[in-house]
Fold:
Amino acid sequence: MTRADNSLDINAVDAYLKANLEGYRGPLEATKFALGQSNPTYLLRTPDQAFVLRRKPPGTLLKSAHAVDREFRVQAALANSSVPVPQMYILCEDDGVIGSAFYVMEHLQGRTFVDPVMKGENNATRAGVLDQMNRVLADLHTVDIDAVGLSDYGPPGNYFERQIARWTKQYRASETNKIREMDQLISMLEQQVPEDDNQRTLVHGDYRIDNLMFETNDTACIGVLDWELSTIGHPYADLAAVIMQWQLPPGREGRGLAGVDRASLGLPSDQAFIADYCARRGLAGVDNFGFYLAFNFFRMAGILQGVYKRALDGNASDPARARAFGAYVPIFAQNGLSALERA
Structure:
């Protein structure tokens, strides 16, 4: 879904692409995609072609956040892999063009599912889509990072120690009031970090069904989108991110599967999805899964807090929706605590 938006300087984009993108020809029209709270995303149309532009949001930003240059790099590196991504056309790191860095990529023609229930689809389609989601995730975690030039895409060391420290710092920088559950969750995660098992792979960082695109009339995945949080890290963070999303209420807001009779809809259980992933990667199983699940609840709480703070500062992509996210932070923190207790 797109909507009219006046925040993008279309004339500046048009002039830049004419000067820097071979074969480009205007005139240019732009509309903003309604979904997405982090990096504003626009559909660009010319008489000959459609593109997608992603930019950093305007205003003062947290250090290392909204790194569109990293998004561009990782997708360009995956161009010839089994992980489907759009074609990358051009990266502009000159803030003077439109006020922030941006890149332009291929506009994929397909369909997305906001809700994993996939209301209106038959059971075979639901099963096929989630099997593709599983297959692509396993393929992502078997990419040879040296061969595709991404060995330096993330620092060495224990991924979870590094991520907990990073997101705690980000959370503190956007903290608007003390949340007891969040403080408790941070403390417990710091104490329970598993020993490093030497799994070091490319991770997406926000792997969920609404960041995937599928064939219009089939279940084949044709694109993995929104790579802002990608890095070199531990694959179980991505796997647990899928399961975390499914713990939430169904519908467009929660986008989860809590309380859903999955078997009647052809949807796999958490355990079946994990087992299929492990089979594809040749793993015996995943120990201490509750920690990885709690980590994802913690990180999402930190992300929501950052979106809420940007709304208060006037920098949110969708201000009204972003302000509502503040109420979810303690809920996600409590869910993280519950996951640790179950573990």
Summary: Residues 115 and 253 are 9 Å apart (CA to CA).
